[in-house]
Amino acid sequence: MKNTIIRAIGRLQESWQKEAIHMYTTRLDRFGGIEVVELPEGHGKSAKPDPQKGMKVEGESLLKGIPEDATIIALDSRGKTLDSKAFSTHIQTWTQKGHLVFLIGGSWGIDPEVLQKADFTLSFGPMTFPHGIARLMLIEQIYRARMIEAGSEYHK
Predict the structure, then answer these.
(1) Inside any domain, residue 118
(2) pLDDT single digits (tens) 88-119
(3) H or E element at residue 91
(4) Is residue 46 part of a domain?
């Protein structure tokens, strides 16, 4: 298991998103790697899904199997925004404590109980992004944070 984990509801549909995420996961190998876990959507095959029930099912799935020593970071538009340097500093602090687990909810968001269990709630701003793009933005920012930590010119 990798020290940094992204647990995300839903599968990527677009090949360009898969390719970009693969590129960053490969680049992150030099920093200990990253594990990306795709989890099923909570509505199953229901023709008329219940958003509250779906979020609850997804929330349970997101939290299942998280290591005991993990710092949990939930992505939510109501969370705190950070610039890349501050994000890098936070990542350095969080990974000293153990595993770092990022949670990306489904199309209904993240269950409030999951947000309560998170150690930090991160926002990319008030806009809504497709989950594949949010996942790509997150993994690129994790890579950027690691490059800042390494003193690389990647971050200008």
Answers:
(1) yes
(2) 999 999 998 899 999 999 988 999 999 999 99
(3) helix 84-97
(4) yes
